[in-house]
Amino acid sequence: MERQLITMPRIGDQAPDFDAVTTTGNIKFSNYIKNSWTIMFSHPADFTPVCTTEMSGFAKEKSFFKKHKTKLIGLSIDSIHSHLAWVDNVRNNTGVYMDFPIIADLDMKVSKLYGMLHPGESTTAAVRAVFFIDPKGTIRLIMYYPLNVGRNMAEIQRVLIALQTSDKNKVAMPLNWEPGEKVIVPPPKNLKEMDAVIANTEYEKVDFYLAKKKLQD
Ligand code: BEZ
């Protein structure tokens, strides 16, 4: 296959804006995400098994995302009629109501804008992408999964809490960090900061450049 040049938003970029038709009405994305954390996720197709587990998985965790002040928005290259029928079908079969907006991206405008089309995987279906966008509209974390492997809800929740905790406390998170565990003290940038880390007896330290601390509850 001839390799095409595809533009993809990157971590640190401003989330590209677009207008879209969704299951909850027409939206302008920049208005939808304003002053809120947002997770936008694509799925390959309505009425398919892995997608149904994932999308209903987001719906089941509604109260978690509300608690963490995070809006949800889904997307696939399907029509609004297909989305509505699928949402109703999942509700009738499982009792799970996927009432967050799902973008009907039939013309692939948003999928292309966000690099969700990976032609080696599929030229007609979006891969399983997840974009974490902060209240200033900056893309902070991106995940891409192929068509045949579902995402991990625990990891989606973990990284959302990690991003929010990092912003609030100006710290970083080590390998396999879980909420409640110690966090990484930012490495010192000058001798004074280095001496402060060395002198701190409360930090768990490997050395001055790798120190962990407990956050106050
Ligand atoms: C699924 O969600 O099950 C699926 C969708 C597209 C391709 C393969 C699997």
Describe the protein's architecture and organization:
The structure is a single chain. The mean pLDDT is 96. The chain starts with 18 loop residues before the first strand and ends with a strand. It has a five-stranded mixed sheet. Strand 9 and strand 10 form a beta hairpin. The protein is α+β, with helices and mostly antiparallel strands. It has two domains: 19-168, Glutaredoxin, CATH 3.40.30; 171-213, Antioxidant, Horf6, Chain A, domain2 (Antioxidant, Horf6, Chain A, domain 2). The chain is built from seven helices and ten strands. The longest helix has 17 residues, at 153-169. The structure holds benzoic acid (BEZ). Benzoic acid (BEZ) binds at residues 44-45, 48-51, 125, 147-148. Benzoic acid (BEZ) is lined by residues 44-45, 48-51, 125, 147-148.
Please give a handful of descriptors for the protein shown.
217 residues; alpha+beta; Glutaredoxin; Antioxidant, Horf6, Chain A, domain 2; 5-stranded mixed β-sheet; 31% helix; binds benzoic acid
